[in-house]
Design brief:
Layout: E1 2-7, E2 12-19, H1 21-38, H2 51-81, E3 86-92, H3 94-98, E4 108-116, E5 130-136, H4 139-152, E6 155-158, E7 167-174, E8 186-192, H5 198-204, E9 212-216, H6 217-220, H7 224-231, H8 235-238, E10 244-256, H9 262-269, H10 277-310, H11 318-328, H12 335-362, H13 368-383, H14 391-405, H15 413-434, E11 437-443, H16 444-453
Helix pairs in contact: 1-2, 4-10, 12-15, 13-14, 13-15
Length: 454
């Protein structure tokens, strides 16, 4: 076998492979013998079909299959052993392949076009610093969060007069009986004022128990789903409930924000977690900071990736890649669409090349146990189970994780996805140890504005 790499430029090359009978004949002969033992042909006992007949019937297809398998393995092995930074897939010279005379040739020549990324290095010492934003919860954010919590853990009170946001209970009656009906619609029901149209809501606010209000039902609840909720009728029936209705109020209930007391603290944080309002506010501030930590870490990750991209010069075989994208997507994209999305595609390619280079320099590897651990963590989060000494639950988590990774229905995509996630995380964590990370305190509002601008 003869393999030659010919570089036309830093980013374009041809890989030429020549095969002789010494390369493929032993394996072809072995498979022909296997076929001879298994083939069943009328007039011959099993295993006694003449070798010449077996070769005549199956020799060509076995030869083609063996050479194709050998080429695939050879190309991949050559790229791996020579550490070529190939982008896209090797593209075979189809004209050369189509010209082969499989019946008479014994030596075979093949050629593959390769797209290569240019050589580059990662020198962390030369890279600029990256900012890690630590989000601090200010008084306004704490107050807003506490106000939301007080509404979430609200209490019910009975009011004497209807106010905005109240729910009123009473009897709804249709004023005019529809044609063909024995009686108009009526029901004991509840009207949540926050679902009522503003122009009708004013008729109810300020009224008291026993008051009777006349109004247009479809104007009060133009949304058919809200009308069904308000009337208690099925949605398809509620759509036909229109015209003038009366509502006599029997009761008025109001959501009152929870009081800042020990009962409220225990409901929010757990029994005995804090004992006074000062401790509660401090704990809320910690929770706010913790809730934003994931977003802050994600922004740091994006900034690290951007820093690596912006400060690493990599040339790509643009024309080759655009043609390759059109070919592998089999008409799903037009040349114009490929051109439009090409910049985003090349950023993704370059970033992966950079991460691979970092992993090579730092000897970063991913073991099965690490992938399994990440999968277990994913399953725990889905179950809302953070871990513990529950042996039965831990065994269940482990079984689900292993089944997910080994699922044959998606051709190993679950394992590949989790492997890539762990690989990516390890590369980023290593980059954090090599880059200069500057910590900066920032308020929640400042962080939100920063993310929006990005």
């Amino acid at each position: 076998m003869d393999i030659t790499l010919e570089k036309a430029s830093e980013t374009n090359a041809s890989l030429k492979i020549t095969l002789t009978p010494d390369d493929y004949k032993p394996e072809v002969d072995k498979k022909l013998k296997d076929y001879g033992r298994k083939v069943q042909l009328k007039g011959f006992r099993p295993g006694h079909v003449p070798a010449s007949l077996v070769k005549k019937m199956y020799g060509k297809s076995i030869l083609v299959d063996e050479i194709n398998a050998m080429l695939s393995k050879t190309v991949s092995q050559y790229i791996r052993e020579n550490k070529l930074q190939v982008v896209g897939d090797p593209v075979p010279n189809r004209e050369l392949a189509d010209a082969i005379d499989w019946d008479n040739q014994t030596d075979f020549a093949f050629s593959y076009t390769l797209g290569l990324a240019s050589e580059f290095d990662i020198d962390f010492a030369q890279l600029p610093s990256v900012t890690d934003y630590e989000i601090q919860a200010g008084d306004a954010e704490v107050e807003s969060t506490i106000a939301d919590l007080r509404q979430r853990f609200h209490t019910h009170t009975h009011a004497d007069e209807v106010g905005d946001g109240d729910t009123i209970y009473g009897e709804l009656k249709q004023v005019n009986t529809p044609e063909g009906a024995e009686a108009g619609f009526s029901a004991k029901t509840a009207f949540p004022l926050n679902q009522m149209a503003e122009e009708t809501k004013g008729q109810f606010i300020g009224t008291k128990k026993g008051d009777v209000i006349t109004f247009q039902l479809e104007q009060a609840f133009p949304d058919e789903k809200a009308r069904a909720t308000a009337t208690g009728a099925p949605k398809e029936d509620a759509a036909n409930l229109t015209g003038e209705f009366t509502f006599e109020t029997d009761d008025i209930t109001r959501h009152e924000p929870a009081e800042l007391n020990q009962e409220f603290f225990d409901k929010v944080l757990g029994v005995g977690a804090v004992s006074d309002e000062e401790q509660f506010r401090s704990k809320v501030a910690e929770i706010i900071k913790s809730n934003y930590e994931r977003e802050s870490n994600q922004l740091l990750r994006l900034d690290i990736e951007k820093t690596l991209l912006d400060n690493t010069s990599i040339q790509l075989p643009d024309e080759f890649l655009k043609n390759w994208l059109l070919e592998v997507n089999e008409g799903k994209f037009t040349p114009e669409q490929v051109e439009e999305q090409y910049d985003d595609f090349t950023k993704s390619v370059k970033l992966q090349l950079i991460k691979n280079k970092i992993a090579e320099q730092a000897d970063i590897k991913v073991e099965f146990d690490e992938v399994l651990g990440a999968t277990r963590e994913m399953v725990r989060n889905q179950f809302g189970y953070m871990g513990g000494d529950n042996e039965e639950m831990n065994e269940t988590i482990d079984r689900i994780a292993r089944n997910y990774l080994m699922d044959d229905k998606n051709n190993g995509q679950n394992y590949t996805s989790l492997f890539n996630q762990v690989y990516d995380d390890k590369v980023i964590e290593y980059a954090k140890t090599q880059l200069t990370i500057v910590t900066q305190d920032i308020t929640v509002d400042e962080f939100k504005a920063l993310v929006e601008n990005r």
